[in-house]
Input
Amino acid sequence: MTRPDIKIGSGIDVHQLVSGRDLILGGVKIDHEKGLQGHSDADVLLHAICDALLGAANLRDIGTHFSDKDAKYKGIDSKILLTEVVKLIGQKGYHVVNIDSTVILESPKLNPHIPEMQRVIASILKVDEDSVSIKATTHEKVDSFGETKAIKAYAACLLNK
Ligand SMILES: [Zn+2]
Output
């Protein structure tokens, strides 16, 4: 029996919301009074997607490939990291089938920005926009996510050869 050469992956990331930083989500800059803290541009959604892709290809995680101790990644655009991850999974013969993701945040409203995020992510992953699902949900005012202290993102992906 031959098994289909498909792999599932999942990724999760959290960054703290702080003043004095731009808010970059899904590769898109969003007007907001706070931004995400991190060594890179702290794009929590792209980081979760990177980890899902790496996990599906059994290539460890984003920190293994792009150390937050390395000065060359300071302030880096996470679209560059995702592009590198697509190359890494490509070296193992994989390409992306689809992504499903969820961003947990109280504010700002993500829905108006989702089509642009889908365009940006789909072009990096070389898939149709219809293969990039992005959902947003609040945390019902509960704990650090509900109190707008942090944003969390989950991503699942399917790869095939
Ligand atoms: Zn991150």
Notes: Residues 13, 15, 38, 42, 44, 47 surround zinc ion (CB under 6 Å). The first helix runs from residue 44 to 56.
